[in-house]
């Protein structure tokens, strides 16, 4: 496949192209990176992903590099500081959810050894290889994202609806949803 054929959603914005080419759909097993994507996907709810991508560096700075151990300790004054930070998405429910999710993320790490072991068990530690020819074929949710969402909600996680979880699965490479004509699809196996 030709290097310049990519998923149509990547468009022509350099930030989107870089994200598509170097990150989206590539398996992530680092817990801090998984935490970052879980929080960012939740922050994206109701917004365009480009909004989150443009604010990503500000998020990393504001949320201590997405270290769940630090975010779990955020109290009311830190939350107010975050809500006054114009560089990030300033939604009280989403910011509070990030703190709640950090605490629960640590509990999952304690129970399973890592969040990676917990979340990747849903796909038997192997990315699901889809074979979509067109972007319109790609679902927003699947029965598996429904199940993961249900399980996370039962644990107390917030902003983890099935659509958010499926986007998380796509972003972290748990599922390969690059279209078959995309160069990245071939790189990630068939």
Summarize the structure.
The protein is mainly α. The chain has ten helices and two strands; from the N terminus they run H-H-H-H-H-H-H-E-H-H-E-H.
Describe this structure in words.
The protein has 190 residues and is mostly helical. Helix content is 55%, strand content 2%. It is built from ten helices and two strands, in the order H-H-H-H-H-H-H-E-H-H-E-H. The protein has a two-stranded parallel ribbon with strand order 1-2. Helix 2 packs across helix 3 and helix 2 packs across helix 9. The two termini are 13 Å apart. The model has no long low-confidence stretch (mean pLDDT 95).
Distance between the termini: 13 Å
How many helical stretches? 10
Beta percentage is: under 5%
Structural class based on helices, strands and sheet pairing: mainly alpha
Order of helices and strands: HHHHHHHEHHEH
């Amino acid at each position: 496949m030709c290097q310049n054929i990519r998923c149509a959603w990547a468009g022509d914005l350099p930030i989107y192209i870089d994200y598509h080419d170097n990150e989206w759909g590539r398996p992530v097993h680092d817990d801090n990176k998984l935490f970052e994507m879980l929080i960012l996907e939740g922050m994206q709810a109701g917004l365009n992903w480009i909004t989150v991508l443009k604010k990503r560096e500000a998020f990393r700075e504001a949320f201590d590099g997405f270290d769940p151990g630090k975010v779990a300790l955020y109290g009311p004054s830190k939350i107010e500081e975050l809500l006054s930070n114009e560089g990030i998405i300033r939604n009280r429910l989403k910011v509070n959810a990030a703190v709640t999710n950090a605490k629960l993320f640590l509990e999952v790490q304690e129970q399973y050894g890592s969040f990676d072991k917990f979340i990747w068990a849903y796909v038997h530690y192997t990315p699901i290889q889809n074979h979509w020819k067109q972007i319109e074929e790609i679902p927003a949710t699947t029965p598996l994202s429904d199940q993961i969402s249900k399980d996370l909600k039962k644990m107390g996680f917030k902003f983890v609806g099935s659509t958010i979880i499926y986007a998380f699965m796509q972003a972290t490479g748990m599922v390969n949803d690059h279209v078959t004509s995309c160069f990245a699809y071939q790189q990630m196996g068939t």
